Amino acid sequence: MIPSIAPQQLAELRRAGRQIDLIDVRRPVEYRDVHVEFARSIPFDQLDPAALRNTGSGSGQEPLYVICGAGVRSRQACAKLQAAGLSNVVNVEGGTRAWNAAGLPVVRGQGTMSLERQVRIAAGLLVVFGSMLGYFVSPYWIALAAMVGAGLAYAGITDSCGMASLLVRMPWNQR
User: Fold this and answer.
1) In whole angstroms, what is the distance from residue 39 CA to residue 53 CA?
2) Which residue from 18, 29, 140, 151 lies 20 to 30 Å from 57 (Cα-Cα)?
3) Cα 146–147–151 angle (5° rounding)?
């Protein structure tokens, strides 16, 4: 069982003067777009339980709080940390979206386009081009639109987006 905390409760602990160790496990481009003001970025794919244990995070009396975009990756990160022996980890319910929706303080990036928006633009353009090429060039191009649709359905079901994994590696997302 992974313990969780509502964003408002975590903010109240912070206001009460508690030292809060909060890690954000989203991709760097997502973190740069918007993040909780006192969160530090450790992307999920770079999460090293041994390194966190060596700093005392999550194994002492003070919990290690974990946040992501909506609460899915942070829950997975908490499970990974617990499996590695860090017993005092807490998932932030609803992630950064819930934190922001509650009107709690965040840091916003300057002039960055969210990864989610990039995925919507790329998927939309691929569907339009696939449909146009299918109509004007060859019906086989319709498969492009079908693959994008299947990829979006898969992303919705698994909360894992292959197109986002590709876009995050693009040069404009590496700044």
Assistant:
1) 18
2) 29
3) 120
**Pairwise CA distance, residues 58 & 77, whole Å:** 12
Contact by Cβ (8 Å): 66, 93:
no
Tens digit of each residue's pLDDT (9 = 90 or more) over 37-69: 999 999 999 999 988 888 767 666 789 999 999
- The pTM score is 0.74
List of the chain residues with pLDDT < 70: 56, 58-60, 111-112, 175
Asked if 5 contacts 74 with a C-beta cutoff of 8 angstroms, the reply is no
CA distance to 71, 112, 175, per residue, from 77 (Å): 10, 26, 25
Instruction: Tell me the one-letter amino acid at 3.
Output: P
Catalytic site includes residue 78: no
Spatial contact of 86 and 139, defined as CB atoms under 8 Å apart: no
**Distance separating alpha carbons of residues 36 and 46, to the nearest angstrom:** 19
Q: Which of 10, 23, 47, 68 is catalytic?
A: 68
